[in-house]
Amino acid sequence: MDLNVVSKETRLNFRSDLIGHFQRSREELLPALHWVQEEYGYLPEWTLEILSWHLGVPASEVYGAVTSYPELSLAVPQTHKISVCTGLACRESGSQDLLNKSLELFDKDGSATSVYEVPCLFSCSVAPVVLIDGVLAGNTTEKLITNEVDYERD
Amino acid sequence: MSEINPLENLRAIHANLETQDQRDRILVEIGQCSASIGAYKELENIKAQYSETHRIEVVGCSGACFSAPRVTGLGSLEISSMDQDFLDSQTRYVLGGIGDIAWDDIRQYISIGGFQGLAKALSVTSEEVIEIVSDSGLRGRGGAYFPVAMKWRSASSQKSDPVVLVNAEEGEPGLFKDRHLIEGIPFRVIEGALIAAFACGSEEVLIYVNAEADLAYSRLDVALQKCQNLGLVGKNVLGTDFSVDVRLFKGAGGYVCGEESTLINTLEGRRREPRLRPPFPTESGFRNQPTVVNNVETLCNVPLVLNFGPEKFKSNGTKDAPGTKLLSLSGNMPCRGLAEVPFGITLLTVLCDIGGIKDVNDLSGVAVGGPSSGILPIGSLDLEILPGVIDGKNVMLGAGGIVALSKDTDPYEATIHLSKYNAAESCGKCTPCREGAPKIVRILEDAKNSTDRSGEFKRLEMLAKTVNAASLCGLGQAAGNPLLSYLNHFSKEQGD
What confidence score (pLDDT) does residue B491 get? Predict the structure, then answer.
C-alpha cells in the first residue's frame, strides 16, 4: 500500500475523524468501512491501513474483509451505475432484454455509465428491477432505461 | 416484583400517547417495492387532493405488490376483487396489522395488541416464557426450522450472558418477506427481539439488516428511537428490572451471511466465512458469548404467541408443523407478492387461489426455496407446504421463496442459473463447494446441446453429492440441490 498518495495532513485529519466516530474495536470494522465508502464513494487503499491502526485489526485482515463483501469496493466508481437484476423472477419478466439494451446503450468507450448484472435485488414481486444510481426501479421497461438514463447525452 | 405490573405500565404509556384527529383515514402503502414503481408520487398526489379533509397515513405494503402502489380508505377507490381474493385466501397472523396501521405509529401498534406480548412475558419468569414458546411448537422461519425454545434454553443455560442477534440478512434470491415485515411493522420485530432477550437472560440485542434494505433500516431506526423514548427499550423496561440495549447493524452483502456463524463473523469484522461447529453459536458465538440468532419472521411470531397464547398459534398449520408461513410469490403469475398461509396447504392451492394462476399447464415448473433447493415439475404441485424437504428428495421449502416459471423457460436453463448463483456466492472456504459448484455449472453448460447427456449426468450427480456432503455450511451443503432436483424431476421426462 502506498500511503504517500495523499498528504500527511489528509491522513492525520482522517485519523482524527475516525477517532471521533469509532472505538478501537474490531466490531467497528464494517461500520467504519461503510462510513469511509459513504465519504469517498469507494474505499481508497490508504484509508485501510489507517483503519487497521485505529481499530487494532491487522491490515491484511482489513483487506480480507473488504474483498469478501460484495457491497464494498476498492475501485473508483464510474459517474453513473446501472445494475440489472437477472434473478429467476426478473428473467421471467424479460431482464435479459433489459441487460442487452443497457449494454448496447452504455457499454462503450467514453461512457460514464457502467452496467452490472446482479443476481438479485430482492424486489421480485415488481420484477424486472433495475438499480439506477442507487434508486430502485420496478416493472422496468426498455423505454425507462432509454429515457430515464439520458444523462449520457447531456 | 409483585408491585410492578408491566401491563399497567403499558396501558399508562398508551393512554399518554397523543390521540390522533378523528378525520377519515387514507392509507398509502409504501415499501421498497411500491416505492420503485411510484408510491411516493402517489402519496404526493393524495396529499395535494385530500390533506385538508383527511388524515393521510403511510403504512407498510399489505403484500399485494401486483396492484402497487395501493391506496386504501378512499370510498371512491374500490378495492379490486383481485386484491380482495388475494388477501382473503390467506391466513394473516404475522402479517396482521401491516397495511392497516401507520408503520411509525406506536399508539396504533399498541391498540392492535402490540407490546402486550412483551408485558405478559415480563409478568412471568424467563423460564416460563421459554415454556410458553416451547408449548407453541414454534420453529425458526429462516429455512432450518430449528425449535426456537430449544435454542433459547441452550443459550440461557450457559455460564456467561447471551447475546441476541436478529437475522434480517435475507440474501436469498426470490425472498422479500423479512424486509416487508420490518418496513410494515418494525415494532413487532423489536418486540419479538426483546422477548427473546428476556427469555434468554440477555441484555444485548443486535439487529443485522441486509445492505440493500435501506428503507427497512431507516424505519427500524425510527421505531427503535420511539421505543427508547417510551421506556420500552433501555433500562428497566416497563418498570421491571429487565434492561436491554438494542443496536442496528448494516450488512455488506452476500448470500452466505444469512448463515448464522457467518453472520457472527461479519459482526466481528471478519471475512464472510462460516465457522466450524461445535461449538454451536448458542454455546460460543459473538465475542465468544452464547449467541441466539433468530430470523425476523420467527421473532414476529413470538409476541403473538405470548399475547394470544400458544393454542391460537397452533390453531393454524398441522400437528407437526403448527403456525403459518410467509411465502414470497414471484415469477410468471398474476398476483405476485407476499402471502401468509398455514402449513399443510398444497403448493397448487397457493399458486391458483392466491397467485391467481388459471392453468398450471402454462408453466414449465416452479422453483421453490431458492438456489439451495430446486425446481418442481407441474405434475408435483400437489405437495404440501411443510418445513424442510417437501418432495422427499432435494426440494426444500427453505425460507419460502416461490418463483413460477413460464413455458418459455427451460428448467435446464433455470437449473444452470441457480447453480451459477451458488458458485458465485461460495465464500471459498471449503474446497468441494469452491471448486465443485463452478464445475457443476461448466458441465451443465457444456452439455446443453448434446443429445445424450447420461454420461454427464452420472458425473454431475456424483459431484453434486460430494459438494453437499463435504461442505461446512448450509450454502455448500445445498449447492448441489438444483442439479439433483433436476435429475430427480426432469431428466427422465425429457428423455435424457
Answer: 87
Sheet holding B401-406, edge to edge: B337-342, B324-331, B401-406, B363-368, B374-376
CB B141 within 8 A of CB B297: yes
Backbone angles phi, psi at B492, to 5 degrees: -75, -45
**pLDDT band per the 50, 70, 90 thresholds, residue B2:** low
Name all domains of chain B by residue range, CATH numbers in brackets: 6-88 (3.40.30), 106-308 (3.40.50.11540), 324-406 (3.10.20.600), 411-489 (1.20.1440.230)
> Would you state the cell numbers that stand for residue A48, as one nine-digit string?
485501510
Considering CB atoms only, which of A72, A92, A122 is closest to B405?
A: A92
Residues paired with residue B245 on neighbouring β-strands, in sequence order: B204
Q: What are the φ/ψ torsions at residue B358 (nearest 5 degrees)? A: -80, -45
What is the pLDDT, as a whole number, of residue A153?
A: 45
Q: How far is A78 from chain B (nearest CA, A)?
A: 19
Q: What's the gap in Å between the CA of A154 and the closest CA on chain B?
A: 25
**Which pLDDT belongs to residue B171?**
87
Closest-CA residue in chain A for B32? A123
**With contacts defined as CB-CB under 8 Å, which chain B residues touch A68?**
254, 271-273, 427
Omega cis (within 30) before B278: yes
Distance of CA B396 to the CA centre of its chain: 15
Residue contact B421–A121, C-beta within 8 A:
no
C-alpha–C-alpha distance, residues A150 and B118, integer Å: 52
Rounded CA gap, A14 and B171, in Å? 33
Picking from A126, A139, A140 by the largest number of B CB atoms within 10 A of its own CB, the best residue to mutate is A126
pLDDT, tens digit (0-9, with 9 covering 90-100), for A127-136 = 999 999 889 9
B112: distance to nearest CA of chain A, Å?
28
Q: At the topology level of CATH, where does A80-153 sit?
A: Glutaredoxin (3.40.30)
B-chain residue closest to A66, CA distance: B271
Q: What is the ipTM of this complex?
A: 0.92
